[in-house]
Amino acid sequence: MADGKVSVPFGRFLGYDRGEHGELIVNEKEAEVVREIYRLFLSGLTPHGIGKELTARHIPTPGGKVKWTASTVKSILTNEKYKGDALLQKTFTPDYLTKKTKKNDGQIPQYYVENSHPAIITSEVFDAVQTEMERRQGSKSRYSGVDILASKLICGECGSSYRPKVWHSTDQYRRTIYQCGHKYKGGCKCSTPNLTAEAIHAVFIRSFNEMITNKKEIISNLRENAANSSNMKELISQRDAVRDEMAMLADIVQNLIAENARIAQDQKEYAKKYQLAMERYEAAKSKYEDLAAQVAEEHRKQRAVETFINNVRDLGLITEFDETLWGLLVESVTVYSKDDIRVEFKK
Q: To 10 degrees, what angle do helices 232-262 and 267-312 make?
């Protein structure tokens, strides 16, 4: 592993075959399935939804099973080997008698090898998937991903999500329309319009082309705003100071315990000192966790901006709806009226 030699369980690893000397060789038939999984995720589906889709298409899992699970899909979406890199020694076996493996959380060295083998997914697409996964997990509302269009549509009147609805489901006039999920609930009905898929496509194409026409200015503004608004250094400094305070308070608690075990003393007085030290420690811990979360959020924002820039930098105008671009770039589409539909791109 220290030499950067990559090995995978080829019998259960989708997309690669073992070469003559144990190297990874792309299996194109399986690689297409991997690319489709990434495309479906960026189009708006969840790992669970992707699993249902692959199962319905009768595509076997990496282990040769019929039914796909969300965990199998997620493991493919988060495995850096598909972009040609390899993180080695993710797990280890502490007891060779039981043969049970454990996740390596720093107990032993890990090795990250860049460009160790042919990639199936570009780095840009892989990073975009990780950013989108973080965005969905950090969203205040639960992400459904039932329909790639509905998952982005929001009613401008009540803030509810749009839902797909099938009209004429049993005859030749069958079609799907999208309407506010709250439209016919309660006494006050929203006046926002129903939309067809074609109308949504047209709005996206127009908004996308407007954005691409001004992409140089947009990229410049994004980088300037990111540089001006980021308080990462200050947050990291505060986080590290609180971490040092936690370590100091932990030492105080340990010294109190050790002293109480070594020297006979008033236990009520000891309990007061111990309680006070623990309260200070818990307060510092809570503050540290809050600061650490803020640092992580700043990192996420920075990655999101760079991912957006990488995704649009080389793009040109489009004439047809593109599912991948829709999932990759659109944050939300807010519907106020038939003539006022606003697209917000991810940044």
A: 160
